[in-house]
Amino acid sequence: MGSLKLVTIKGIPVRIHITFPLILLWAAVQFGRGQSNVWQGALFGVVVTLLLFICVVLHELAHSLFAIQFGGRVIEITLLPLGGVAQMERLPDRPYQELLMALAGPVTSGVIGVGLAFLTLFLFPLRIWTDFLRALSSGGKLPWSYLLPYLAVTNLFLAGFNLLPAFPMDGGRVLRAILATFMPYGRATALAVRVGQALAWMLGLLGLFGRDVFLILVALFVYTGATQEGRLVQLKTALAGLRVRQAYSHSPQAVHPEDPLSRAVDLMLEGFQSDFPVCDGGRLVGMLTRNGVLRGLREYGPQVPIHTVMLREFPIAGPEDDLFDIQQRMSELGAEVVPVVDAGTFLGLLTRQDLEEAYRLVTAYPALLPRRR
Ligand SMILES: [Zn+2]
Q1: CA 366, CA 362: separation in Å to the nearest integer?
Q2: From 293's CA, which of 131, 178, 314, 324 has a CA 20 to 30 Å away?
Q3: At what angle do helices 213-239 and 352-364 cross, to 10 degrees?
């Protein structure tokens, strides 16, 4: 959502978020400001930022390839103004695998940084470094020869920043992996999340006092990232070992493909249900969601047969599927409901509310639902 696909590398789509041009704009302003030739400075900023993002893609690819190696699945890599995110469906289970996967990114950035630094030494006289650092701090002229040292420094910074032992940085994963070898996974995560939030507060205060908007944005990014990771693991711990059959709604009202849409509207008004399985003689042939009902009413009116507006392709769940996996898939797809089907027979629906209920119940009283490990 809200992103464009650039390329596909090793089966992983690399996308840019629609807000990505903002960072180019920011770079143009930042680098152009105070330069004798504003346009040349601005162009330098844009070029250097684009090159830097190629390095960021390599960083994320390194994580992704290790994740795939350990049986994970990478959905996509998205470039946001503040960096790249590799969205993974399943993470490696073992602490040492997570450790290697987490280290792969910063190590890649570090290697690129050191490599470019050597290349700079090889191509230019040594004093380019002192000239370059002076130009950076005092807003001096930025000739194109400064591209290399600039990229070297930012890649090394990227490696260092990502190794900070706090979520959502890679170092947070490293810290959790190490902690998880001698304490439960949930507690290890909670600790790494706390460190991340504390770091975010520090960065935020520094940004406020230094009037640095960029630093405040980074602080917000770190804070929300840390908090999200904490929630995800809480959810995972709560739902671990639970099956779909323990949470789904057993006898939802079903509709027939030849029924008029008004039938579903009546059912919606009578009860709590807003998504309907479309069944023909016990067989599930489609799904009619709340949005489908609304769209159908707008486009065709209440008399249209349900088969014209129902979804024919949708995710399904089996009764023995892992509840957490299904929850993750639903939230990725933005699905409010999935039908539960066993060997072709329709059993019921698993809705967001069912999941929330299961989560609240087992959090209140863990022994309520038996877990299978
Ligand atoms: Zn990383």
Answers
A1: 4
A2: 324
A3: 80
Q: At what angle do helices 170-179 and 185-209 cross, to 10 degrees?
A: 150
Pick the CATH number of 244-368 from 3.10.580.10, 3.90.380.10, 3.40.50.720, 3.30.420.40: 3.10.580.10
Q: Which residues are catalytic?
A: 60
Contact 10, 17 (CB under 8 A): no
pTM: 0.69
- Find the 105 Cα to ligand 1 centroid distance in Å: 5
pLDDT(211) > 90: no
Listed by start position, the domains of the chain span 1-163, 165-239, 244-368
Per-residue pLDDT tens digits for 312-371: 888 888 888 888 888 888 877 778 889 998 887 888 889 888 888 888 887 777 777 777
Q: How far apart are CA 192 and CA 79, in angstroms?
A: 25
Angle between helices 323-333 and 213-239 (to 10 degrees): 140
Query: Within the chain, how many helices (H) and strands (E) appear?
Result: 13, 8
How far apart are the CA of 168 and the centre of ligand 1, in A?
9
> Do the Cβ atoms of 165 and 195 come closer than 8 Å?
yes
Cα-to-centroid distance, 342 and ligand 1 (Å): 40
CB atoms within 10 A of CB 245: 18
